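I would like you to sit down with the pair of lines that follows and say whether C-alpha cells and residues agree.
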Amino acid sequence: MSALEMDRMQVVQRVLEKRLTQAEAAMVLGLSQRQVRRLCQSMRCQGPRALVSRKRGRPSNRQLPEVVQEYAVGLISERYRDFGPTLAHEKLTELHGVRVSRETLRKWMIGAEIWTPRAQRGPRIHQPRRRRDCLGELVQIDGSDHEWFEGRGQRCTLLVFIDDATGRLMELRFVEVESAFDYFDATASYVRKHGKPAAFYSDKHSIFRVNQEGSTGAAKGVTQYGRALGELNIDIICANTAQAKGRVERMNKTLQDRLVKELRLHGISNAEDANAFVPAFMDAYNNRFERAPRSLHNAHRPLLEGEDLNLIFTWQEDRKLSQSLVVQFQRNSYLVEPTTETSKLAGKTVRVHLWKDGQVQLRHNNQPLSFALFDKSLHAPADRDRSDRTIVIAGIGHHDHLDRCSRSAGSAIMIT
C-alpha cells in the first residue's frame, strides 16, 4: 500500500467511526461525496485491501509487445552498446524503424544494464599529480572571469600564472576578456621578469589549442599563441579536465577571496589600478605561502640573441605578394615599395605582423619591407574618359627602425 493509499484508509476509517462526515472527508481527499461513499462501502466489505489500486502488478494496456523490447535491446547490445539513450533512439528510428519513446528506451537500456544513470555512477577518481621538481619546469596558466571589484567597476578577467613546483604566483594581469593579445602581453612580461619556462600548462581554450580544422597560425594546427611559444622553445600542454590543472583552479578560488578583499581595502575599482597593485600582492602572498622546490635548479632560460618578444608576440599570417607588389590583409591593401629586391618577391609569400594596437609590419625571410597603405577613402575619382587612375598613398612605413604603418580609420579588427 502506498503512502497515498494509507492516508486515504485513515480518512475512510474515521468516516466509518463517525468521527468525520462524508462531506469533510471528500474535501480532505479531493474526491466527490459519492466516491467517498463507494470507498466506505468497499472498506466495510473487503477491508483495507479494497483501497489498493487494482492496476498494481498488472501490465499496462499501452505496453509495447515484449518482442519489440527484445529486438531493440538486441540491436543496441550488438551495434550501439556504447551509445547513450538519446543517440541510440535516433539510430533505431532512422535505420531500423523501431519507434519507441526515448524514455522507454532509456528504461530498457537501464534494465538490460547497457546504460547506467548518472546518479548511479561511481565518483570519478582524480589522484593527485606529483609536483614538478624545479622552478620554471611547469607553469600553470588560466583566466578567471569574476566580479573582482564587487560591482564598483567593470567585470573583468584575471590571467593567472602559477609555478607548479613551488605554488609561487609568477604573473597576474587584469584584462577585459581572455584573448590572444592579452596572453601575448602577459607572457612577454613573464619572460622578461623570469626567463623562459620549460612548459606552460593550460586548458583547451581555443587560444591554446586548435579545436577545429584549419588555423591562421604559421603552421597548420597551431594557434597564434602556440606558434609564439614554439618560436621561444616553450612547450604548451593542454589539460583534459579541470581537475588536471587543479593547482591553478584552486588558486583562482583563493584569489577570488583574498585578492577581492585586498582590492576593496585599497579602494581599487578598475583594471589599470589593479594591475599596478598586484606586484605587491604577489610578493606578500609568495612570502607567506610559497613552498621550497625539491630541486634548487631553476629551469627558466634566458632569451637568446635574436628572440625579439615585441615581434614574436604578434598576430602573424602569411600572404602572397601579387605581381603588382600588393598584399591584401583584413580588407586593406598594402603596397610594397618597388625596388630591385622587392620586384623579385612578386608571387612569393610574405608574413604580416599585426600588433594589438592595429599596427602592421610586412616581412620576408625575417627582413622588414617598406610599404604603403592604400587608403581607398582618399582615392581621387578619375574622369570617365581617362584610362589611367590616380592612387593616393596614405604613408610609407620604414621598418628598418620598426616604425609601423597605421591602419586606415574604420578598418580596426578584434582578434580573440
